[in-house]
Specification:
This protein has 249 residues and is an alpha/beta fold. The protein is 49% helix and 12% strand. The chain is built from 9 helices and 7 strands. α7 crosses α8.
């Protein structure tokens, strides 16, 4: 919880809200000049990280640490490990899995398997038993089966709820099978943090990044400098990855 709180406080939205709250407190105490200064800072900070040109730059700083690689260029490994975060299992009244923007991870893993790059696929991702019908790992396995990956080669880590646990629980399952060399599949933005955590588990991980966001050009002209909700989201996730790697989560 502490690491999540730190990440939220350092996110563009979290920082701006904290500055705005301080500005309101100072105004209540009749310190109007300080209040206006903090209010202006909150506005400028939120505007800056909402600009596509700045969020694209920050995203590329993170993603360029592990550039895009053609599938044919990967050397064979003992297993493909797919990190959670790309699929939501059925929840509430829904009976279908939900593919989000990071579902490229599962699709890319299926392509690696079908290219003969490893004989085993491990998918990770736990669930909230009060909300979800089953784990994210099981949802990913269903999607993998639809993409032509045989059920008998899929291993599930259904207990992990964050990247640190992804690495620890996956390492235990892999080492029990005598596996050390893996192809690690996750979003490019997530890869630097994931690689650090898997290396800490003593695994030989070859990065297999996908879901590149910085390869898409920002809007042209003045639109690149105007606030945009998607740009703010990208900035927040990029900062989360930088801070997450720093705190080791």
């Amino acid at each position: 919880m502490l690491s999540k709180l730190v990440i939220w406080l350092l996110s563009p939205l979290g920082t701006a809200l904290c500055l705005a709250a301080l500005a309101i407190l100072l105004a209540w105490r009749q310190r109007l000049r300080s209040s206006m200064a903090l209010g202006a800072l909150a506005f400028v900070w939120l505007w800056a990280w909402s600009m596509p040109v700045l969020s694209h730059w920050l995203g590329s700083v993170v993603e360029n640490q592990y550039p895009q690689v053609p599938i044919a260029s990967f050397e064979p490994a003992q297993a493909i490990v797919v990190l959670g975060g790309g699929i939501a299992p059925p929840s509430g009244k829904s009976t279908e899995i939900n593919l989000n923007s990071a579902a490229d991870r599962v699709w890319f893993a299926a392509r690696l398997f079908r290219a003969g790059k490893a004989p085993l696929v491990l998918v990770s991702g736990g669930s909230d038993p009060e909300r979800d019908a089953y784990s994210e790992a099981r949802a990913s396995a269903i999607f993998l089966a639809d993409l032509g990956v045989p059920a008998q080669v899929i291993v599930l880590d259904e207990n992990s709820r964050n990247t640190r646990q992804n690495a620890a629980f996956s390492a235990a399952l892999l080492k029990a099978r005598g596996i050390n060399h893996i192809l690690l599949v996750t979003s490019a933005l997530h890869m630097p943090r994931a690689m650090a955590l898997f290396a800490a588990q003593g695994l030989q991980a070859t990065p297999a990044p996908t879901d590149f966001e910085s390869l898409q050009l920002p809007p042209p002209g003045v639109l690149a400098w105007l606030p945009d909700a998607q740009a703010l989201d990208l900035s927040g996730r990029a900062i989360k990855e930088i801070v997450g790697k720093w705190v080791g989560n």
